[in-house]
Amino acid sequence: MKNEIERISLNDIEQKRFLTAYLDQEKPFILTDVIPDADQLTPEYIKNRFGKESLKDLGWYNSALVEDDDISIPDIIKYAMQRSDMSFRELPMRIFMQPRGHVTLPHYDGSSLHGFNLQITGAKRWILTSPHTPLPTIPFMFAAMVSQKFIYDPRHHDFMEFETRAGDLLFLPRYWFHEVHALDEINLNLNWVCTPIEPNEKNPLGKREVELMKLKKTVPFVHKALGKDLSNYGSSGPVIFERYTRDVSNFRVWSRLFKEIIKYPRLLFLFKELKTRANEFSKNNFNIEER
Rounded to an integer, what distance in angstroms lies between the CA atom of residue 212 and that of residue 208? Predict the structure, then answer.
């Protein structure tokens, strides 16, 4: 079913309502009228200030938490940061800076991340797919295994399609697939991420995540092949790992391995197309020297 995302003005929401209706329910919504002070947040400023941060070649800069005259953290995010059931990593802020035409392959974020995405300049079109009706996934990964001709079918998937513009703060809960299209010449977003310390196995992707965690920990060749370090998962690795995997039986581990392996024929069929989309994602990022 195609659903509408809720939009609520910053002036009309209380912290308690945000907690009970959205954060705890892991339900997306857009908080409007979060007016950013974007005068100083030019592409040149972002590149000079954050250009040495990691992952810039993949389309974003990871950064330590910043709050100063140029960048302010919305109060609703500060409220989430104070929660004892949320874990924030060492670099919890991301800066996305992309040109018109940039498109992400549908995916959900690893490490069970909640995201708070604030549109600073430009506009983006989003398609979110519920983890209760997930897209097919690449084996052991978080990206969707779909072709460029894929059409979201309301008979099979619960999804939302909408745009964010300057001043819109999107709450994107863990495991929600998102495909994002950059619409304006310059599109700048600030994004804060955190990981709940308790698992959510009420949907297929939540179950998959805890099974993959246990699988990577207990099956050496999978852990080695993927190269994923769980020791700092969500910045509280051992604590979160223990809580997320406490109810995962050996049967579920081996069942998950089988479920991932049988996806490889489809992956081989789509491999060239998926690789092309991944390369376009990496190369079509905003580079001030090339524009």
Answer: 6
Cα atoms in the Cβ-side hemisphere of radius 13 Å centred on 158: 11
**What is the reported pLDDT for 289?**
45
Q: Are residues 197 and 239 in contact, defined by beta-carbon separation less than 8 angstroms?
A: yes
pLDDT above 80 for 2? yes
Asked whether the predicted pLDDT for residue 227 surpasses 50, the reply is: yes
CA distances from 47 to 69, 186, 196 (A): 17, 13, 31
Is there a contact between 248 and 208 (Cβ–Cβ < 8 Å)?
no
Cα 30 from Cα 189, distance rounded (Å): 14
Distance CA 24, CA 26 (A): 5
pLDDT at 248 over 60: yes
| Ranges of each domain in the chain | 2-198+272-286
**Is 2-198+272-286 a CATH 3.40.1280.10 domain?**
no
Cα distance between residue 5 and residue 183, in whole Å:
19
User: Rounded to an integer, what distance in angstroms lies between the CA atom of residue 149 and that of residue 152?
Assistant: 10
Average pLDDT of the residues in 15-23: 85
Other CB atoms within 10 Å distance of the CB of residue 289:
5
Give the Cα separation of 61 and 52 in Å (integer): 8
